[in-house]
Design a protein that fits this description.
single chain, 423 residues, alpha/beta, TIM Barrel, Arc Repressor Mutant, subunit A, 15 helices, binds iron/sulfur cluster
């Protein structure tokens, strides 16, 4: 058994709803906590046969605010994974928490149970801004939580911060970056505010109080430069880490590795299949209880789609992409993509090193547009080599797009659980 998998558990409860939040999270739903807890435990137990062929090397409790669920319940869910799956002793086990929302004793309880990484939602250092966003903590709470976490034995801490917040300017952003760096976390995630429909902030989306695209770009490049000076290497568009502390779990998403989710709205990618569970906690609880289907969406990825994912996801990271690797895995050429990358290189958006291409920080900033162009170029290339008047070798390449050694979906979706994963 050498197949590795990451586990994600979605805990959707929050003390209150933040103004910018677009995640599936519920405020004021505490009465559902006991039923949800039983449902997740039951769901994991039912999935045990599917987990059997895998070594679990990362576990991630996200949300929501998992600490709002309680340390005791988190430990019991983790213990269920240990009982029903093969969790490696050195697995990276992360839990997202909010500052001020968890006591030192609870942190100790988590650490003793094997949790070894915390992801703390600090967001910014200005208390007035935190309050205006509906965050239920101050920056001093964040400092206290980091101190408690260290005392509880956590040696791997990640901190989330956001740029582009209402009324934020370069100076206040610089202060956030400096004060967060002073927390000496091993990892920092730095996200640009994205105002989505359905959030409380949406009605202010055209407000002059929100930094425009240029101001956001300026803040992003400032963070990349400053965090590098503090010893944080950028390894993904929004993620920075001290050497050796890159998030192993999130790398699975970006490198196209397998992961299995539990909880409402949780996504999974296993073998060649992508699926997600129903994003409704009451229906999730009910269906798990009755042994009914909880999958809301599923798709079997074609080889060509997987090749597109390779380009799209790996270009988010400093690993980048390589022509040789791409051909080895997908038996596809990427001449059109290379042509584009050379153009990006001239503009300072991409660089090539040791046969690999990756974006520069300026390229990361434009990555949505650039990756869109790259996928278009790849599709165009496929159309070209599918033409019968192409050379014989191009025709052979077209015929060899199937994986020779892809993981077998049947190894996962087999036995008595098959009927729970509809096509
Ligand atoms: S704590 Fe996180 S998940 Fe909960 S409402 Fe705020 S941003 Fe959303």
């Amino acid at each position: 058994m050498d197949k590795r998998v990451g586990i994600y558990v979605h805990i959707p409860f929050c003390a209150s709803k933040c103004a910018y939040c677009n995640f599936y999270s519920l405020a004021g739903a505490e009465k559902l906590i006991p039923q949800f807890h039983s449902a997740v435990l039951r769901h994991i137990k039912e999935y045990a046969p599917q987990l059997d062929g895998y070594l679990i090397d990362t576990v991630y409790f996200g949300g929501g605010t998992p600490n709002h669920f309680g340390a005791g319940r988190l430990v019991s869910v983790f213990n269920a994974l240990k009982r029903h799956g093969h969790v490696l002793l050195d697995a990276e086990v992360t839990v997202e928490i909010n500052p001020g929302g968890i006591a030192k004793e609870e942190l100790l309880k988590l650490r003793r149970a094997g949790f070894n990484r915390l992801s703390i939602g600090v967001q910014c250092s200005d208390d007035k801004t935190l309050k205006s966003l509906g965050r239920a903590h101050t920056f001093a709470d964040a400092e206290e939580t980091v101190k408690d976490a260290r005392q509880a034995g956590f040696e791997n801490i990640s901190v989330d911060i956001i740029y582009g917040l209402p009324s934020q300017d370069r100076d206040s952003w610089a202060e956030t970056v400096a004060r967060v760096a002073a927390l000496k976390a091993e990892h920092i995630s730095c996200y640009g505010l994205n105002i989505e429909e359905g959030t409380q902030l949406y009605m202010f989306k055209d407000s002059p109080f929100l930094p425009d695209d240029d101001a956001q770009a300026d803040m992003y490049l400032f963070a990349v430069e400053t965090l590098a000076r503090f010893g944080y290497r950028q390894y993904e568009i929004s993620n920075f880490a001290r050497r050796g502390f890159e998030s192993k779990h999130n790398m699975k998403y970006w490198l196209g590795d397998d992961y299995i989710g539990f909880g409402p709205g949780a996504h999974s990618y296993i073998g060649r299949c992508r699926y997600s569970f129903i994003e409704d906690i009451e229906k999730y609880i009910e269906r798990v209880k009755l042994g009914q289907v909880v999958v809301e969406y599923s798709e079997e990825m074609s080889d060509f789609e997987n090749a597109g994912e390779y380009l799209m996801l790996r270009l988010r990271t400093y690993h980048g992409i390589s022509e040789e690797e791409y051909y080895d895995i997908y038996r596809l050429k990427m001449d059109n993509v290379l042509e584009l990358l050379r153009k990006y290189e001239e503009n300072g958006w991409a660089i090539q090193k040791d046969g690999r291409w990756r974006f520069t920080p300026k390229g990361f900033m434009l990555s949505n547009t650039l990756i869109g162009e790259i996928l278009e170029a790849q599709t165009k290339q496929r159309t070209q080599i599918s033409k019968p008047w192409q050379t014989q070798s191009a025709v052979e390449d077209t015929q060899m797009t199937l994986f020779d050694n892809r993981p077998l979906a049947a190894g996962v979706y087999s036995g008595k659980r098959t009927e729970r994963i509809p096509n």
